[in-house]
Specification:
Distance between the termini: 23 Å
Length: 222
């Protein structure tokens, strides 16, 4: 139900220079970490390379550090950023939209990245949450192995459950590298998913306003 003039993100999607959440350093003395590094060495041998050559000798350690960043969402609770709300909003009961939130996640089928944008809106019912908290919810669920459909539903479901607004709308647009450089080899294909609850699902005018605002905020002239 997306409008025809809805602009997809540029293929040159910019990746944030830093994560939303601080990363903790892996414990390289932990037996599980050591075991994981051995598995990475085995994979390097499996693909036909020498895990002991100079360029790869530290690769298992670097991969473990990268995994701590890529998948930090498993150690975070999406309820936490939504726990502090504000009621002094002068009776505001119209749409709150945060568009163009960066998505960097990994496909759970092939463990390769997919990147793009999320657009998140809700209609408050007496209380609002800090805008950065919406981005944090997106980040928490993105930093896990995902399929885009599940990611979209989890973002909307968490906001609906913990903030209890009159409705939530989430649209995710992403480019999947498992489709770009393997399989069907479609590097220019974008996937769009949506999840609507409450008034966004039941009220056509509210839904159309949301889609129109996304189209405006994603316009190349903005």
């Amino acid at each position: 139900m997306l409008p025809a003039n809805l602009q997809l993100p540029s293929a040159q999607t910019q990746i944030s220079a830093y994560p939303v959440f601080p990363m903790k350093e892996p414990d390289f003395n932990d037996p599980k970490t050591k075991q994981a590094m051995e598995h990475i060495r085995s994979i390097l041998g499996f693909i036909g390379d020498d895990a002991n050559r100079e360029g790869l000798i530290d690769t298992p350690r670097r991969v473990i550090k990268a995994y701590y960043e890529h998948f930090c969402g498993y150690s975070m609770d999406p309820a936490e950023p939504l726990s502090r709300t504000f009621t002094e909003i002068e009776g505001y009961d119209q749409m709150v939209l945060l568009s163009g939130i960066e998505i960097q996640s990994h496909c759970e089928h092939h463990m390769v990245p997919f990147v793009g944008k999320a657009h998140v809106a809700y209609i408050p019912d007496g209380r609002v949450v800090g805008l950065s908290k919406l981005a944090k919810v997106v980040e928490i669920f993105s930093k896990r192995l995902q399929v885009q459909e599940k990611l979209t539903a989890q973002i909307a479901g968490s906001i609906q459950e913990h903030l209890k607004p009159r409705g939530v709308a989430v649209v995710v647009q992403a480019r999947h590298y498992c489709m770009c450089y393997r399989g069907v080899h479609q590097p220019h294909a974008w996937t769009t998913t949506s999840k609507l609850t409450g008034v966004f699902l039941n009220n056509l005018a509210t839904r159309e306003e949301f889609l129109r605002l996304i189209s405006i905020t994603q316009s190349p002239s903005m």
